[in-house]
Amino acid sequence: MQELPDCLYEGNQPTLITPLSPTPNHSLYLSNLDDHHFLRFSIKYLYLFQKSISPLTLKDSLSRVLVDFYPFAGRIRVSDEGSKLEVDCNGEGAVFAEAFMDITCQDFVQLSPKPNKSWRKLLFKVQAQSFLDIPPLVIQVTYLRCGGMILCTAINHCLCDGIGTSQFLHAWAHATTSQAHLPTRPFHSRHVLDPRNPPRVTHSHPGFTRTTTVDKSSTFDISKYLQSQPLAPATLTFNQSHLLRLKKTCAPSLKCTTFEALAANTWRSWAQSLDLPMTMLVKLLFSVNMRKRLTPELPQGYYGNGFVLACAESKVQDLVNGNIYHAVKSIQEAKSRITDEYVRSTIDLLEDKTVKTDVSCSLVISQWAKLGLEELDLGGGKPMYMGPLTSDIYCLFLPVASDNDAIRVQMSLPEEVVKRLEYCMVKFLDGKDNEDENSRAC
After folding, report:
1. Which domain holds residue 129?
2. Active site (catalytic) residues
């Protein structure tokens, strides 16, 4: 795997793109689902397009779409209360950089088949003292020697979730290719998700813990261990045939969705490849869209984080013994708990700022497939490739640009663990247990 060459910037880069017409100037309240520490990062996408669009066209359409998505032209700040974040909708502008890299689309695919540190060159680095000082929307378009382009975006997770990022990107594409109004306009008010007064935590929330409490029963913090190691990305693509075979390992006794089967297989393989103690309790945290689970449902176009993390729990021995049935059942039970009252209880729980997401013994899965991200067309055709700019210990289920029915699983682990994970993940395709070092680990 070779590093990408440096980007060449011309003139004064980057520029600030402001909304084309005046927008509301106010402080935008962020809900407790937007404003907690687990989401204080930017969602970073990388798109590879075979045909480029001129920077003037892209900046013009961005300026127009920012009229509706005006919080992206604002700045995040701490509210006067001192404990909550809010958006200062001041119209300052989104960051837009344009560059050139002396490679072709094919060079990119062949040089760097997986995310690596040199990919970071493709997104302009904003000099900032903290995450809060980085503008909510940063974009870089890098033009390639072959006439293609790479689009990288950094979208502040406190403003929206994966569904929201897709909604924005498709709105930008719509503005690039059409003068018509948006089919769905964003609904920015978060007050439909206000906490109750007084807060009422009516459910247990095993996906969260308090920073003031120490769990003495857990002696091994998986997250801290992984963060302390040199990591390498693991990437596996499952086509429709693979996914059907995986689902059949639960049939006929248990019907399940593709997500449930793949998440169960990933969780189980993760625990096996890390060689965790059999008696250890491990968790799977995964996002569940709750827009239609509330009573009443969230307004159409709701623009904020509209998900909660479901939490499945299992002893390692129950997870890894037998097939994926136990893991699937645990995931289904976790999903079924996401009701209107559960969501309200979560919002009230997060009023306590000592509460944080418990990642110490958890695998976190984020679903990017099925959001339409790979369908983005800015006027030159759909992308050759779509994925994250970086790879992390958190697991992503990604779309495959060339196959709408396939899903790419990606996460970073220590190099020696990556090989075991990749083996364990595809072991269901092999009817026999191969007697080698990897099979004994799985």
Report:
1. 15-186
2. 157, 377
